C-alpha cells in the first residue's frame, strides 16, 4: 500500500511493470465441486483493467462460487478445486495478500448491533498495511476519508453500522474495498434489496473505479440496469455460456440459454414466477440446473 492519498486503480507499490500490463483477472480451467454438486466446470474468463463486467446467471449457476474461488474460499472439506486464477498476472493468493482484491459478498457475516461506526468498518480495509499493532496512520485516515467521500457516506462516518439502510450498508463495504486500495473488485449482488437511488449511487461509484483503472466484476439479477453499469457481461450456467457487450448478451435467445426459458414468453405472463427485469421484458431467474 503506498503512502499519501489512496488512488484506486494506481498500481500498488512494488507491483512489477509486467504485472500492470496483465489482465486484472484471468481464470482458466476452473472446476469446483461441492461433494456431488458440480458448481463450476472448466470456467475461463479474462477481465481487463478499467472495465466493469456483469456476471449473469440464474440461482445456483455458480456466481458466488466463482467469487469465492478468486478469494481462495473454496478450499476445504468436501470441496474439490482445480484450475488457475491469476490477478494482474500474479498468483491469486499472493495478490490477495497484497490487498489487490476487494470483495463485497452477498451477505456480510456481520453483527450489526456491534458498537462500531461506518469509519471503523472502512478502516478495516487498511488493516493489511498496518502491521500487528493496527495503529492508524495519517495515510490510513486520508484513505478512509477519500473512500467515504467516493461512496457518498462522509456525513455518516460516525453512525453505528446497525443504523444504516441496506443500500448504505452495501456502500460501506464498497468503501472498505476502496480504502484497501483494491484494483480488482468483486461484488456479489450489490443491488439486492437496494432502492433505485442507492443503485444509481453504487453504479456511479463502480463506473468511477473503472475510470481510475480498477477492474470490477459484479453479479446482478437486475438486467434492466445492466447496460448503464457494465462494459461486458458474462452469462454463466456452471460453464461460461457467452461473453460480450450487454446488448448482445441480453438478447432474449441468449438469456433463454442460461435461464432455461424464453424471457419474452415470461413477459407475456406465460411464466411469471420470479421474474427478473430485462430491457426486453421479464426473465425468470429461477429454473437453472443445480
Ligand atoms: N457450501 C456448499 N455446499 C454444497 N453445495 C453448494 C455449496 N455452495 C453452493 N453449492 C451449490 O453449488 C451450486 C452453485 O451455487 P452458487 O451459490 O455458486 O450459485 P449462485 O449463482 O451464486 O446462486 P444465487 O444466484 O442463488 O446466489 C448450487 O447448486 C449450490 O446449491
Automatic annotation (TrEMBL):
<dbReference type="GO" id="GO:0005524">
    <property type="term" value="F:ATP binding"/>
</dbReference>
<feature type="region of interest" description="Disordered">
    <location>
        <begin position="268"/>
        <end position="290"/>
    </location>
</feature>
<comment type="similarity">
    <text>Belongs to the ABC transporter superfamily.</text>
</comment>
<keyword id="KW-0547">Nucleotide-binding</keyword>
<feature type="compositionally biased region" description="Polar residues">
    <location>
        <begin position="281"/>
        <end position="290"/>
    </location>
</feature>
<dbReference type="InterPro" id="IPR027417">
    <property type="entry name" value="P-loop_NTPase"/>
</dbReference>
<dbReference type="Pfam" id="PF00005">
    <property type="entry name" value="ABC_tran"/>
</dbReference>
<dbReference type="InterPro" id="IPR003593">
    <property type="entry name" value="AAA+_ATPase"/>
</dbReference>
<dbReference type="GO" id="GO:0016887">
    <property type="term" value="F:ATP hydrolysis activity"/>
</dbReference>
<dbReference type="InterPro" id="IPR003439">
    <property type="entry name" value="ABC_transporter-like_ATP-bd"/>
</dbReference>
<keyword id="KW-0813">Transport</keyword>
<dbReference type="InterPro" id="IPR050153">
    <property type="entry name" value="Metal_Ion_Import_ABC"/>
</dbReference>
<feature type="domain" description="ABC transporter">
    <location>
        <begin position="25"/>
        <end position="263"/>
    </location>
</feature>
<protein>
    <submittedName>
        <fullName>Metal ABC transporter ATP-binding protein</fullName>
    </submittedName>
</protein>
<keyword id="KW-0067">ATP-binding</keyword>
<dbReference type="InterPro" id="IPR017871">
    <property type="entry name" value="ABC_transporter-like_CS"/>
</dbReference>
Amino acid at each position: 500500500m503506498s503512502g499519501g492519498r489512496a488512488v484506486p486503480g494506481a498500481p500498488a507499490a512494488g507491483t512489477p511493470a509486467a504485472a500492470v500490463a496483465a489482465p486484472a483477472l484471468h481464470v482458466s480451467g476452473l472446476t469446483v465441486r461441492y461433494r456431488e454438486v458440480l458448481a463450476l466446470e472448466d470456467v475461463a474468463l479474462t477481465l481487463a483493467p478499467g472495465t466493469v463486467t456483469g456476471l449473469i446467471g440464474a440461482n445456483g449457476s455458480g456466481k458466488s462460487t466463482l467469487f469465492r474461488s478468486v478469494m481462495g474460499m473454496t478450499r476445504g472439506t468436501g470441496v474439490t478445486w482445480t484450475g488457475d486464477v491469476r490477478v494482474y498476472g500474479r498468483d491469486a493468493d499472493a495478490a490477495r495478500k497484497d490487498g489487490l482484491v476487494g470483495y463485497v459478498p452477498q451477505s456480510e457475516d456481520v453483527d450489526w448491533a456491534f458498537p462500531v461506526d461506518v469509519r471503523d468498518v472502512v478502516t478495516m480495509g487498511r488493516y493489511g498495511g498496518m502491521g500487528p499493532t493496527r495503529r492508524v496512520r495519517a495515510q490510513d485516515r486520508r484513505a478512509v476519508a477519500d473512500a467515504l467521500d467516493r461512496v457518498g457516506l462522509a456525513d455518516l462516518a460516525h453512525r453505528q453500522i446497525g443504523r444504516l439502510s441496506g443500500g448504505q450498508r452495501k456502500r460501506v463495504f464498497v468503501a472498505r474495498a476502496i480504502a484497501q486500495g483494491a484494483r480488482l473488485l468483486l461484488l456479489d449482488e450489490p443491488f439486492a434489496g437496494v432502492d433505485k437511488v442507492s443503485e444509481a449511487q453504487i453504479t456511479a461509484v463502480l463506473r468511477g473505479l473503472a475510470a481510475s483503472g480498477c477492474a470490477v466484476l459484479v453479479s446482478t439479477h437486475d438486467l434492466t440496469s445492466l447496460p448503464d453499469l457494465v462494459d461486458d457481461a458474462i452469462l454463466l450456467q456452471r460453464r461460461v455460456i457467452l461473453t460480450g457487450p450487454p446488448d448482445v448478451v441480453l438478447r432474449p435467445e441468449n438469456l433463454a440459454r442460461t435461464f432455461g426459458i424464453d424471457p419474452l414468453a415470461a413477459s407475456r405472463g406465460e411464466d411469471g414466477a420470479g421474474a427478473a427485469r430485462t430491457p426486453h421484458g421479464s426473465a425468470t431467474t429461477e429454473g437453472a440446473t443445480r
